[in-house]
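Continuing from the previous page of notes. For each protein in this section, the sequence appears first, followed by its structure tokens. Read the first protein now.
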Amino acid sequence: MKETPDRLVSVREHFGIDSDLRVPAFSEPEDHVPEVDPAYRFNPEVTLAILSGFTRNRRVMVQGLHGTGKSTHIEQVAARLNWPCVRVNLDGHITRLDLVGKDAIVVRDDVQVTEFQEGIVPWSLQRPVALIFDEYDAGRPDVMFVIQRILERDGSFTLLDQNRVIRPHPCFRLFATTNTIGLGNLSGLYHGTQMLNHAQMDRWNVVATLSYLPRDEEVEIVVARVPEMGDEAGRELVESMVSMAALTRKGFAAGDLSTLMSPRTLINWAENCQIFRDPGLAFRLTFLNKCDEAEWPIVAEYYQRCFGVELVGSTPGVDAGTGSSGPSR
């Protein structure tokens, strides 16, 4: 692992953003560098926010609804900079010991000895690594206070068990993704999220919001992910699918639906279309069955608007049958 970036890259060339900025990068990837996704579409504002983290060592938080690609956005920026990246999901099972480290019994020269094993935080701090905390607002309070120590740009980290102070590597970077900006589960969508300490939120230098892609870009993403839908008929079907997703998002915003279709759901739907050869059946198995049955008629109405046919099996308690409910591929 190289200690520092050894070249500058053009933001215009690598990210397709109209900017003269040049950012530091590594010339060669190593094992912790994410793979480049050539189909990924960058949001200009969010990309520049993330690049400020890499260039100026800002602490960057990316917030937005599920499926918008928050973590992937950070990873794809890192991939194009060949910057090593480690992603940690702060679910309820992550403990302070997982982050800081703990004593473990190891065998040295056929003798069992107790040895301290560093957690992911001290390991990352000492290397040119971008550390991403996923689901940041789902972390346990004791875990969050561990993280608060490293939110200061030049803040040192004390390993109490080792009586050792770790100073951050000059190229260590810190990012986080969140659904609620630390406000808790106000919408009822994100169970398990917590209200975050305001003093901790204040330590994040940059907070960017990532929304869903424009319609045309979303169509291109789906087609890139499912190349079998790249012909004229396939694109027409994908455009109808994207329209359907947009209606569910409007219905969610208006309070008519309790769930919505993310880009991830759209891609799953397109892939399932290739398996079942029936967009209606694929839609039911991908999205409709995740919805509250009381909302099925609303979803069926959206489907009829986008595809011009009734959605078979959209009435609770009625056998779906095997009839087609849309143009097949």
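Done with the first. The second protein uses the same format. Note its length before scrolling.
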Amino acid sequence: MEALAPQELVSVRDVFGIDSPLRAPMFAEATDFVPDIDPAYRFNREVTLALLAGFTHNRRVLLQGLHGTGKSTHIEQVAARLNWPCLRVNLDGNITRLDLVGKDTVAIEDGRQVTRFQEGVVPWAMQRPMALIFDEYDAGRPDVMFVIQRLLERDGSFTLTDQNRVLRPHPAFRMFATSNTVGLGNTNGLYHGVQRLNHAQMDRWNIVAVLDYLDPAEEASIVRSRVPDLIDAHGSGLVEAMVAVANLTREGFRAGDLSTLMSPRTVISWAENVAVFHDPALAFRLTFLNKCDESERGIVSEYFQRCFDRELEATFELDAALV
């Protein structure tokens, strides 16, 4: 039986390593819906405080940023340390109003066909101690967005018209969302398919936080922690060059020169593949370059050459003892 409410307040400084006197509510035990803790995760101070305000004071928090910055992961890692159950829903074009609200289904009981109402994601989650996370919030269909709008009120109820029921949210129900834009649509041409959001709905989000990519030194530290074989002096310089390439792809993406970029996850995969192939150039081609549009590979190769001071096409193997 899952707990109905958090049982204790914990120090934000002790749990998240953030210099703050705040205390946050925490459940005593984890359930199956609580994400696993990533011990190497690095928390952004401002974003973490915004998310903690959502958990502690039931504020609706929208987290915006480029893809690959770890928006959803940041919410999950905060929840993991608070033992707070989470449910992620990706608002892609396949999610419909019925998926969120629910629908009648036919079942066989005692040899007869009977109609039963099957709750959708929203009524199921809001009746439980649950953090409901809407991913790709700015890509949701208009009919889906209006289902969510009433929930954005702090004590927003939810009406099931087919059932003549009004649901009240559980005291430990929380709502978050992630988006690539701030509701203004695809103004810079980077994200096709996102919608221009209703201003009345955007106004209902109590807190809007922005998450950017990590500082290069922090990102390099994370990569080394995930790939211990690259911790030595030689590997350290290699990782810094890899992160430098990743940052150039991000700048190119923002400028519209590239249609894809290297996320921190991709950099980690690249480092892991370096440990496999002992060749940073080959690992780079297999990890990232082959995913790029053919017309953009020359730009990406130039980024590699600039950071490694050698042609991408040249094979250069590392001493196997070093990786």
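What the second structure shows: The chain has twelve helices and eleven strands. The first helix runs from residue 12 to 16. We return to this in next week's lecture.
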